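User: Hi! I have a protein structure encoded as tokens and I'd like to know what sequence might fold into it. I'm fairly new to this, so please keep things simple.
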């Protein structure tokens, strides 16, 4: 067998393997979804940061506090170093919907996520930046998005 025949045979073998692998991957991709046999479970997210009262998973505690009865967390308030002011009170209409007990209030609280998604970005302002938006053609456009109260 000549060198040329070996190379051709090798190429054919490589092509055959590539086609077989592609076919196997295609068949894997076409399988119906099945839940994996094992799921990663962090347990309940019910461990409270005693500084800011944020809820954490137990696995989020710092290494230094793994043996302590008071878990420490660095991802929320960084051990109490970050202290944000309380958010402003909501408008009275919204406060009533959030706190009320009538049917309208209950319906509002049941669908609050859908309302939030539906109304997001329904009212915004845009200022074009002339610093970036110069010249012709399809260049980048820089917009500063502002909310009605900003
Ligand atoms: Zn915290």
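Assistant: Happy to help. Inverse folding works backwards from shape to sequence: for each of the 150 positions I chose a residue that suits the local structure. Here it is:
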């Amino acid at each position: 067998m000549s060198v040329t025949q070996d190379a051709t045979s090798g190429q054919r073998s490589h092509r055959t393997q590539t086609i077989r692998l592609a076919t196997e991957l295609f068949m894997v991709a076409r399988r119906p979804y099945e839940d994996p046999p094992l799921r990663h479970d962090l347990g309940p997210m019910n461990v409270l940061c005693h500084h800011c009262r944020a809820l954490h998973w137990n696995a989020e505690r710092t290494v230094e506090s793994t043996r302590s009865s008071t878990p420490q967390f660095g991802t929320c308030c960084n051990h109490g170093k970050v202290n944000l002011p309380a958010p402003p009170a909501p408008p009275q209409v919204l406060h009533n919907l959030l706190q009320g007990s009538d049917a309208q209030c209950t319906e509002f609280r049941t669908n609050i996520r859908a309302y939030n998604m539906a109304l997001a970005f329904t009212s915004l302002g845009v200022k074009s930046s002339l610093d970036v938006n110069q010249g012709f053609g399809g260049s980048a456009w820089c917009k500063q998005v502002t909310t009605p109260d900003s």
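A useful reference point when you look it over: DSSP finds four helices and four strands in the chain. Feel free to ask if any position seems puzzling.
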